Amino acid sequence: MSGVLVIEDDDRIRLSLVMALEDEGYDARGAATAEEGLAAQRTRAADTVLVDLMLPGIDGFECIRQLRRVDDVPIVVVSARDDTHDIVAALEAGADDYVVKPVAIKELSARLRALRRRARPVALDPVPVLTFGDLQIVPEAGEVRVGGATVPVTRTEFQLLCELSEHAGRVLSRQQLLQRVWGYDGGDERLVDVHIGRLRAKIEKDSGAPRHLVTVRGLGYKLLVS
């Protein structure tokens, strides 16, 4: 049974989410504050964490950052705030997805299943190190290296880079990437844009070096072969 931790200060919303997720077959539990949620995750780690942004004390953005420093658990923001700035800020803090309230539980459950599939280790045949100029992708180790130095990336960033490397030189649309990386048939394309931006900041630190990730206006993104 998949464990879900719901960090939400509104008692009614938290209880309704926990009960609805239990009806969907999840082992769900709640926390009313970020501090309580962080302690709960340390004590008995959930497979997925849902976080509201408007929390008392430590807010949702900082909660996400603190979770991400020690854990690669999939994080989904569930918030009434639908401003683009808030969505981008939450994703940049380390969230994997963003769902706007009111929540359709069937849609949320589908997204949780997709995140769980991505998080589950898959046995693969040995894959050689993939090299694109000074960029190296090591599939077996889940590592990314630039100029020989390991660059820390999240699970989502790594999977996004692997998908682009598998189709190096070809343009993949945002919707294609949402389907292949997130497992979503449709969705908010800002998920892709923000994660591409985070990857660029990590693998293209030297402004004088050749770019690896290219935006093709109106079409999508591609990884340059050389």
Number of helices: 8
Strand content: 15-25%
Q: What average pLDDT do the residues reach?
A: 88
Work out the radius of gyration. Answer: 18 Å
Low-pLDDT runs of 5+ residues are none
- The H-level CATH homologous superfamily of the largest domain, spelled out, is Response regulator
Q: What is the third-level CATH name, the topology of the largest domain?
A: Rossmann fold
What composes the largest sheet?
5 strands, parallel
CATH class of the largest domain: Alpha Beta
Just name the CATH architecture of the largest domain.
Answer: 3-Layer(aba) Sandwich
Intertermini distance: 44 Å
Number of strands: 11
Please give a structural write-up.
It is a single chain. This protein is of the alpha/beta class. It folds into two domains: 3-119, Response regulator (Rossmann fold, 3-Layer(aba) Sandwich), CATH 3.40.50; 130-223, Winged helix-like DNA-binding domain superfamily/Winged helix DNA-binding domain (Arc Repressor Mutant, subunit A, Orthogonal Bundle). It is built from eight helices and eleven strands. It has helices at 11-23, 34-43, 60-70, 84-93, 105-119, 155-166, 174-182, 190-203; strands at 3-7, 27-31, 48-51, 75-79, 97-100, 130-132, 135-138, 143-146, 149-151, 213-216, 220-223. Helix 4 crosses helix 8, helix 6 packs across helix 7 (174-182) and helix 6 (155-166) crosses helix 8 (190-203). The longest helix has 15 residues, at 105-119.
